[in-house]
TrEMBL record:
Subcellular location(s) per record: Cell membrane
Family matches, as InterPro entries: MetI-like (IPR000515), MetI-like_sf (IPR035906)
Alphabetical UniProt keywords: Cell membrane, Membrane, Transmembrane, Transmembrane helix, Transport
Lineage, top ranks: Bacteria, Bacillati, Actinomycetota, Actinomycetes, Pseudonocardiales
Keyword tRNA-binding: no
Similarity comment text for this entry: Belongs to the binding-protein-dependent transport system permease family.
One Pfam family matching this protein: BPD_transp_1
Origin species: Pseudonocardia spirodelae
Protein name as it appears in the record: Carbohydrate ABC transporter permease
Length: 277
């Protein structure tokens, strides 16, 4: 009887997981299938029908002169790389200071900074826009990256908790060998934190690869247009050509899938490290 109940429970859990997987993956499958259809096929067949035959002409056209999707990809890649470098550098420095250095008001300052996680992004959009406009940075590359360059509350919190778990004896041994704070960070703390840093890097890349609201507000025209705003422009400018729009979304997702497949082992390892101490 117990074995029968256990099997029923396993079957129910499996069915729930399969349903969740279908709901999660269905939009991506539909996006790829629509991108592989011609405009005539999309208009003449049901939305859920597979392309017959599949075509790559939408992806080819996306990178042609009519749509010029290369520039948004290049701008997005530049923004992500600069923000990633800044996030890793300044988040490591701030997290180590909050975790290991002693100074007055350290904990109060940390929790006050962490409380900004509760503030929605839309609340800060107008003040940031006014600041960038007054500084003459509106519709520039630096306007896209400066609000995110110097770390984030989530990143600092994540790294601080990990740095606090590093044995103090290890840091003391490095100091006895004559290492200062910078050398300890470079040769002890960072190497011991590679899995969590890789996870933070992946989260940062995904977040800013998909960032939409701030680029939409602070930029205009096509010079500093990122992929999300370029795709939104396709939806409004070419509203009847959904295969092109789906080709753009598919192209946008592919680098993130590759990134996850490359670093999935380190991400799982970081979850194991942070979850079982």
């Amino acid at each position: 009887m117990r074995r029968h109940r256990s099997r029923l429970t396993d079957a129910a859990v499996l069915a729930a997981l399969l349903a969740g997987a279908v709901v999660t993956l269905a939009p991506f499958v539909l996006s790829v299938a629509t991108a592989a259809k011609t405009t005539r096929q999309f208009a003449a067949t049901p939305v859920l029908s597979p392309p017959a035959p599949p075509t790559a002409e939408n992806v080819v056209a996306l990178f042609g002169r009519d749509y010029d999707f290369v520039t948004p990809i290049a701008v997005t890649a530049q923004v992500v790389l600069v923000v990633l470098a800044g996030q890793l550098l300044f988040s490591v420095l701030a997290a180590y200071a909050f975790a290991r250095l002693e100074f007055p008001g350290r904990d109060a300052l940390f929790w006050l900074y962490l409380a900004t996680l509760m503030v929605p992004q839309v609340v800060t959009i107008i003040p940031l826009y006014l600041m960038m406009t007054d500084a003459g940075l509106r519709n520039t590359f630096w306007a896209l990256v400066l609000p995110y360059l110097f770390g984030s509350p989530y990143a600092i919190f994540l790294l601080r908790e990990h740095f606090r778990a590093i044995p103090q004896d290890l840091l003391d041994a490095a100091r006895l060998d004559g290492a200062g704070t910078v050398r300890i960070l470079r040769h002890v703390v960072v190497p011991a934190s590679r899995p969590i840093l890789v996870t933070l890097a992946v989260i940062t890349v995904v977040t800013h690869w998909n960032n939409f609201l701030w680029p939409l507000v602070i930029t205009s025209g096509r010079t500093w247009q990122v992929m999300t705003t370029a795709t939104a422009g396709l939806q409004t400018q070419y509203n009847g050509n959904w295969p092109i729009v789906m080709a753009a979304t598919t192209v946008s997702v592919v680098p993130l899938i590759v990134l996850f497949l490359v670093f999935q082992r380190r991400i799982v390892r970081s979850i194991t490290i942070t979850g079982f101490r």
